[in-house]
Design a protein that fits this description.
109 residues; alpha+beta; Cyclin-Dependent Kinase Subunit Type 2; 2 helices; 12% helix; 21% strand; globular
Length: 109
């Protein structure tokens, strides 16, 4: 697993043409059920494997080949839709199309 802090850099917004290339994959993004521990609730988001080829190269960590830890503006720009409070906190190196998210348990209550 790779984990890096997204807040140490500025969000990199997609251009209109980059967003257009991703459009065909958005309906095939899969969202896991939520699961939790004492502090956080979690879910993983599975992107279609072919989508990785359409995502700009600078969204990837050159050392791992996985997506960098993305700011909310970045993952939403890819077409990932979730309620408020979710944070991309880890990527799964053996399966780079899987993004792991968490948010505080009882967020918004």
């Amino acid at each position: 697993m790779a984990s890096r802090i997204a807040s140490s850099r500025r969000p990199r917004y997609l251009t209109e043409s980059e967003r257009d290339r991703l459009e065909e994959f958005i309906n095939d993004i899969h969202y896991s059920a939520r699961y939790s521990d004492d502090h956080y609730e979690y879910r993983h988001v599975m992107l279609p494997k072919a989508m990785l080829k359409a995502i700009p190269k600078d969204y990837f960590d050159p050392d791992t080949g996985c997506l960098k830890i993305l700011h909310e503006e970045e993952w939403r720009g890819l077409g990932i839709t979730q309620s408020l409070g979710w944070q991309h906190y880890e990527t799964h190196v053996p399966e780079p199309h899987i993004l792991l998210f968490k948010r505080e348990k009882d967020f918004g209550q």
